[in-house]
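Need residues for this backbone.
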């Protein structure tokens, strides 16, 4: 609250004449096997900036969720000798106001329009195929002579979702695998306890996956006719819309290029109601 109060006071001191930040770049995300690729437009660099400000660069962030919190990854900034610019910043991790903290964290290596990584900076691991990752690229301008609160003008963070995966055209039925396996009543793909998700990875453009119990009964049929992705989701329900029980299941993958068979272990917890 104090940070908001201070920001409001600073806006008042400036006569509410707050300089606007640069335009947000248009970001597109693409993926490969174990890699995330980001690209953005640079049209905002030619825009006229507020008096005293110069366009400085772009910041790349990764979010824990689509709404954040956001972790700074790297910057692409102009080669002009300006690297760090300190100013007033609120530290989300400690909920503290930092009077002189880095607002711009450049490297002076030059502007860019793309970024690729195989690292998950939020969890400290490598990115995993089939998982969703959240990124944002902002544009910023600097005026080292301005008051601390507005020395750096940065555009808003807009999330881009990227799901690493192999290209569907490059995989075969024998490469299909369910994740997680075993499924322990929960997966990282789920947003609530009722929206269960198992993802089949490396699925060719055209495929039919049939899931059977050990008695040979058909539990669920999944159809795929999409060359843009190699991921197919199962909501862990039967064809009748009922949740499956704990057990070992056999899945059969049928594609124009061949078939494959595998096993999937599902361990379900007792259903719990939040309200009754």
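Answer:
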């Amino acid at each position: 609250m104090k940070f908001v109060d201070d920001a409001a006071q600073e806006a008042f001191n400036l006569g509410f004449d707050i300089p606007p930040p640069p335009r947000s770049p248009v970001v597109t995300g693409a993926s490969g096997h174990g890699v995330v690729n980001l690209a953005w437009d640079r049209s905002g660099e030619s825009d006229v900036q507020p008096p005293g400000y110069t366009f400085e660069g772009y910041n790349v962030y990764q979010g824990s969720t689509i709404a954040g919190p956001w972790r700074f990854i790297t910057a692409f900034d102009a080669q002009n000798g300006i690297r760090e610019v300190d100013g007033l910043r609120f530290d989300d991790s400690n909920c503290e106001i930092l009077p002189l903290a880095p607002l711009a964290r450049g490297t002076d290596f030059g502007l860019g329009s793309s970024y690729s990584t195989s690292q998950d900076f939020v969890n400290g691991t490598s990115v995993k195929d089939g998982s969703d990752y959240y990124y944002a690229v902002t544009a910023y301008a600097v005026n080292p002579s301005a008051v601390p609160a507005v020395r750096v003008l940065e555009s808003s963070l807009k999330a881009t979702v990227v799901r690493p995966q192999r290209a569907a055209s490059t995989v075969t039925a024998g490469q299909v695998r369910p994740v997680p396996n075993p499924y322990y009543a929960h997966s990282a793909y789920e947003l609530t306890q009722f929206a269960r998700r198992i993802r089949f990875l490396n699925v060719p453009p055209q495929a039919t996956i049939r899931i059977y119990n050990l008695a040979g009964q058909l539990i669920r049929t999944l159809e795929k006719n999409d060359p843009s992705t190699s991921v197919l989701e199962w909501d862990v329900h039967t064809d009748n819309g009922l949740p499956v029980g704990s057990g070992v299941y056999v899945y059969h993958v049928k594609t124009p290029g061949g078939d494959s068979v595998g096993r999937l272990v599902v361990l379900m917890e007792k259903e719990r109601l939040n309200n009754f």
